[in-house]
Structure formats: C-alpha cells, structure tokens
Amino acid sequence: MNNQLISIIIPTYNREHLIANAINSVLDQNYDNWELLIVDDASTDNTPEVVKGYLDPRIKFIQSDKNGGNAVARNIGVDTAKGDFIAFLDSDDEYHPDYLEKALKTLNSAGKDTAFLWSGTKTVAVDGSQSDFIWIPKTEKVPNQFLYELHVGIGRGFLIQKECFDDLRFDENLRTAVDTDFLIRLRQKYNYTVLEDIVVTINSQEGSVRTNYSEKKKSYNIIIAKHKHVIDKDKFLRFKWYYKLFWLSLYDGDQRLAHKAFRKIIFSSIKPSFLFLLFSVFKRDKAISLHRKLS
Hints:
alpha/beta, 41% helix, Glyco_trans_2-like, Nucleotide-diphossugar_trans
C-alpha cells in the first residue's frame, strides 16, 4: 500500500487567509506518499504569494489566466495528476492527520469492484458551533442511486481511483451543482464504500451559500437533460428533479422554463400549483421569502 501515490487537488480562488490551513493539513498527514496540486482559478488577492511559500517537489502550483470555475480547476488538476488515486480538498477545509492513511486502507480493503469512497466530516459553522456527519445512503437503486439520494459533495473526503477519470470529467458548462452532476455519473459507472470516521473538517464561510438562481437553474436543467430517460420514467424522480427546476426558474423569473417544468409535475402534487399561485399573487422577492418560510 505504501507505494500507492495519492494526488490531492485543491482548487482555489481568493483564499489567501484560509489556504495555508488546508496545505498544512496535507503536510501533517500520517501517510506521506502524496503529491499536492493547487490549481488557482485566477485569484485577484495574494493567494499565489501564500502558496508559493510552500512549494517543494511534492507541491505544485498551477495558475489559470482567467476564472473558469470550479469544474475547470478540478479538471486541470486531474489532467496533471500522476497518482493512483485522486483526493479533493477545498481550500477552506482541512484533512485530519489520519485521513489519507484511513481512506486508502478502507478503499483497498473494499475489493476490486469498489472505485471510490467518502468519509465522515466535522462542520464548523460561522458561529463556531460544530456538528459531525456521516452519510450512509438508504436507497439501493443501481446504477442511478445518486439520482434518488445524494447528501455529499466532492469535498466530503472523497478518494477516487485515477482510472475513473479515463471517461469522466467535471462538466465545465456548470458553475453550480458541479459535484451533484459528477457524482451521479460516477455512481452510474462505479461502486463505492464509506469511511465511517470523522477525518475531514469543513469550515463554513460567510457568504458561501450561492444565490445565483440563474446558474443553479441552468445547472439543473443540464443535469435533467443528461438523465431524462431515467427521470421521466420514474414518478419519484420526475417530481424531485422537475420541482426543483420549477422553483429555481420561478426564483430566477424565467416563466418559460418554469411552465415547462410545471407541465411535468402538475398532477403529482398540490405543491407546484400552490407555488405558481404564490408567485402570481406576490412580487418575486416576497414570493421567494414566503416559499422559503413554508419549505
């Protein structure tokens, strides 16, 4: 096991005040056969200067000329990686010292048919409160399991065999829901296991919740199109995915796409009709506020 190289990819953008903690958490690993690829997505702060203070033969820094988004940065890292396995760490998060050691041991022990895992995580909220989380899926529908249920992102301690990326990439057309899209496709091709230990700390940041409804709507419309043949045939999936596209479209003021999604679920529940009425009676900001309170 000790000769297996792990490529750790940290995509970053304007994290000068945070990225040192992420890098130090890699340097502190018990397992030492790793390379760290830090991909800077055209930061405008001093992130490059901070990173350059850490460079050595195992730590590489790749700078992009223009901001392409998280998917682009991750793909650059994947294309550069030389490891047998790839791990992803967000630039504001931290590995615990035993993450790599435990993740590699767990994945190797799971058998040849198991290609990836995620771990338990500790989340530190902005107010300093902490909570632990280990997601164990309840659904067992294969290979479309993650269409039904998905409660983790790539930053939740994922370790993935490099060969998975021979035919998979992060979709560079997406600016949001990048993890959702990738993990659905990853699960359709490969099996997983779970490292049921808390070995990654997720640090919440002010303003980290995305409110760009236009990009969210675009992303979910693309994801639905990719899996339409599965979603349209399943009553549960049809409501789940089109209802989210429906309210995102209403939030964004896109009546055309909202009507298109609405027609897919009009007879599934009273919720879509009620929401349409809400947005017909109230101005959009007020309707959004009411919907959030009722959800």
